[in-house]
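User: My advisor, Dr. K., asked me to get a structural model of this assembly before our group meeting. I'm new to this, so sorry if the format is off. These are the inputs:
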Amino acid sequence: MTLGKSWFDSLSNLKGIGPVKVQQFQQIGIASIKDLLFHFPFRYEDIQVRELATILDQEKITLKGKIVSEPVVQFFGRKKSRLNFRLAVSDHEIISVTFFNQPYLKNSIHLGETQAVYGKWQSNQQNLLGMKLIKQAESDQDFAPIYHTTKGLRQPQIIQAIKQAFEEYFEEIPELLPHYLNEKYQMIPLAQALFQMHFPKNGEESKQAKRKIIFQEFFLFQWRLQLATQRQRKQTGTRILYDVEELKEVIQSIPFNLTTAQKRAVNEICYDLMADFPMRRMLQGDVGSGKTLVAFLAMIASVIAGYQTALLVPTEILAKQHVKSFNRMFESIGLRAELFVSVMNTAEKKAIIDGLHTGRIRIVIGTHALIQDAIKFKNLGLAIIDEQHRFGVGQRQAMLNKGVDKDSINLLQMTATPIPRSLALSLYGEMSVSTIDELPNGRQPITTVLVEEEQIETVYQSMADELSAGHQIYYVLPLIESSEHMEQIENVLEVSDKLRARFPNYQVDVLHGQLDKTEQQVVMESFGNNQTQILVATTMVEVGVDVANATVIVIQSAERFGLAQLHQLRGRVGRSNLASYCYLISKPTTEQGKARMQIMSQHQDGFIISQEDMKIRGMGDVLGRNQSGLPQFHYANIFEDQHVLEVARQEVGQLLKTPERLSEEEILTLSQWVEKQMIEV
Ligand SMILES: Nc1ncnc2c1ncn2[C@@H]1O[C@H](COP(=O)(O)OP(=O)(O)OP(=O)(O)O)[C@@H](O)[C@H]1O
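Assistant: The format is fine. Below is the predicted structure of the whole assembly, which you can bring to the meeting.
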């Protein structure tokens, strides 16, 4: 290693990477040398040189031979061109090679030289439709990496930067796994694994690299998780000693019976609240299973015991809705929740801030506005975080810091993607888990129908039937306005006009992110009161929106949504005893797209849907927003690699019991890593 040099250095330290490139790399989440080395190809092209006789028509392959004619470029039109040359791939076989619109390649093609070319084989013409010239150095590799790119950053530039990083920083790549584990599981060093992830010579090298990277990713995740748990166990918690009878009375005032699963969850949570360790619990339940009510009851227990309580939610619409339903249910028995969101005016905000500070306000529900420094509680005993994956580690910590004593506060997190117990143990550590595994009595499965645009009439018919039965409808689209890039997609505004014409006797309203927040609230309220019957919206209605009278959700261009998102959207209906329908309008063009739509029509269980989704998506696509709420791994797949996760969990557990197995240097490297990486837990 070189003194002062580290793989956490900024990319700007690499030769040839100026400020513009640095910014472009940042757009795909790459800031440091380490980030770049972990920017793995999302797929590889098989560039093994093949024999002509073994190749099928239209197959993508690499051929290698001697260039036996000067390259010729013909231009046609303003920007179009064709480059041709001949390649002798064996003593008796000469083929032609064509590249379209890359005239500059002419300078790299020299008569008499040996050249490998990747492309599509056209057997009739004995022609290779060239896609890429393969450099000498790459031609002993079987695979060429393909990376996610961004505007201004092309494949060759990414490859060049990665090669540069290996050249200049290879020595600085630390070994993160303890030596004895590498031995035990026969894993290659990290530096080598990273290199082989990008430039594997063959399938075996690629496999070795993946094994190491997956194990390491799970190991580091477990290391951080279990250390946090260990620390947590030593804390004493704020004990919420509530009067059980009083809570029972509250439960009796609810107009329906709790499900068995809800009762069990309430009991588990309340047991933790009374204990002298701080609660760290995950409440999981599929869409519409009644998590919110369980959360309300935990909040009430806290208030009965004399503590304040806060519920943090990801959107203002949701915050407002929760306040409304809390007060509707409990205000008559003297329990009132206050709202705190950023759109409130200064006076309103001040009143809440003062109320929380003096302890006059005991129950608050709000968005991230709640975690700002100005908010100080008198005695916050329980914090609840809904849709926990929408908040970062820092935001969750900021909420915890608002407790009487920051480590003692009780925390309940909620997720709408319930996972099996065994997986929960590995993913949530020793955090306890309560699962609501049944829907309230009388709920009917939602009928999901896949339709193509041309069959829209059947959808309109069903909408008409439901409207005349007095029910309401969501109509969801992926875009707000027409965009040049997606001309075919009808947008919210156009569709709402169309629906107004079609259903003149009903009120049609629109909801999207470009309305100001007050307008959004008005629209939601009007839909909530059934003054609006059809709500045409973007995914703003995705989480938590609860209008029991809505029985139809139509999702247009459904193939453009993630499955987790579609499942959340579908969960906006089927929230009462009424029969409900979900129409997915789509025309998937790929096999994968078709399979995804099938999954939606066949399954109603959120966990199965995420699992199936990951199976068909494969690696690479997990980038972007985390929609399922399951912890996201850079490379490993919690379903396919579950056994590795389990091994990593056990190894970390052992290691924490016998830390003497680690050298001082190993401990130092691990703690530096943990410090630098805020892996989501
Ligand atoms: N035991 C019950 N019996 C009947 N209705 C219930 C019961 N529990 C909750 N509900 C109602 O069911 C609807 C859905 O409940 P809730 O909003 O708590 O679900 P959720 O799990 O938070 O859903 P989501 O993940 O979609 O936000 C609400 O209208 C709620 O009042």
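One thing worth pointing out at the meeting: Residues 256-259, 262, 285, 287-293, 416, 440, 544, 546, 548, 571, 575 surround adenosine-5'-triphosphate (CB under 6 Å).

User: Perfect, thanks a lot.
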